[in-house]
C-alpha cells in the first residue's frame, strides 16, 4: 500500500508540475496510526502481559503447573492430570509463548529504546526494567525445562540452530545479571510511567523484585551448591527483597484489554472443566484451614475434592469460589508470602536472613492468611494447631507453602520439587513413571534444531518429564 501511495503521488506531481512535492513525499507516506517502529513501552506492556498470562494460565494447552502440583482435578478430559503432555503439545506452546511472544518483545524493546528520547537516568531505568523482566522470564524457562537455548537464543539473523546451555551455568549468569543491572538503577528517577503495568515506573520496587528473583534462584541451589546458595540468598536479602504485599510482582488486569487467565478459563470459556482436587481439600480439611471458606464452595454441606487423574462429575464436588473468578484479579507471580516462605526455609538451612526459622514460618503463614482475608484470631488458632516442626522443617514449610501457593502454580511447583512435600503420588492412570519434575522440550525443536535438542536431552539424562532438574537432588 505504501508503494502504491508513493507512485500515485509521484504521478500527480509530474502531471501538475509541482516542484514542492518531492520533499513532502516521504512524510506523506507515514501512517501515524500504524507506526513502523513500536514504542518500547508498548513492547514492554505486551511482554508483561504475555509472560504473566503464560505463567499463570490454567489452560490445559499451556503450562500445566496446577496439575504438576496436583491441586486441581479435571472433569471431562483427564489427560493433563494423567500427565499426557503430547496430545495438546503443552511443551511446545509454553516454549513458544515464552521465547517468541515474550523474550522477543523484550529484545525489540531494548533495541527501540536506544532510539527514543529520554534523559540518561530515565533511559537507564527503562533499560533496567526490561533487563529485570527478561531475567524473570529466563528464570521461568530454565526452571521449567532445564538446559535450554540461552546464549545463542534470539539471534535468528545469525544463528539458526542455537545450542542448549547448561542450566546451572544459566543460573550463575542470571545471578550475575541481576547484580549488574541493580547497579545501573537510579531510584530517584522514574522508569516507564507508561507500559510498566506492574510497578508503574517505581524503580525501588523493581530492585526489590530483582533481588527476590535472586532469592528464588539462590534457594533452588541449596542441595546442589550450598556455598553459592547461601551467598546468593544472603546477598539478595541484604540488597532488599519484597517485604510487603505492596511490593509483590502482580500483573493487574483491567477486565477489557487484559483479562485474568483464570477468569478466561473458568468463566469466559463457559466451561466446567476444573474442580479443586481431593488432595488439597483433604489436606486443608485435616488442618482445619480457614482459607477454605474463601477459596471453595461446599457440596452437601462439606468440602469435597475431585479425584486427581480421574473423570469427575462437576456437580458432585466443591468448586473454586468467586475469589478466583474475577476478570481483574491480578496474577501474583512473585508474592510476599512466597518470599516469606523462602526466607523461612533459608533460616532452617542455617542462612542469615534476618530471623529464626520459626519466626519466619509464622510470618509466612500469617501473610498468606492476611492475603486471603483470614482474621488475626483465626490465624492465631491455625498456627497454634500447626506449629513449625523443627525436626521435620521440610514437611512444615513444604506443606504450608504448597497450600499458600494455591493458584500460584509455578511457585508451588518450585516448593514441591525442592522440599519433596507434600508427597505427591503418581495417579494410577498416569502416562509417566512418576510425577513430572520438568517440562519436556518442544516437539518442534526436534524438527528445527534436532542435533542440539537431542544432545541436551542426552546430557540431562533423557528428555522426559520425570528427569529431575540439576538442583532437584532429593
UniProtKB/TrEMBL annotation:
InterPro entries: SusD-like_2 (IPR041662), TPR-like_helical_dom_sf (IPR011990). It comes from the Bacteria. Keywords: Lipoprotein, Signal. The keyword Cell membrane does not apply. Gene3D superfamilies: 1.25.40.390. Residues 1-23 form the signal peptide. It holds the Pfam family SusD-like_2. This is SusD/RagB family nutrient-binding outer membrane lipoprotein.
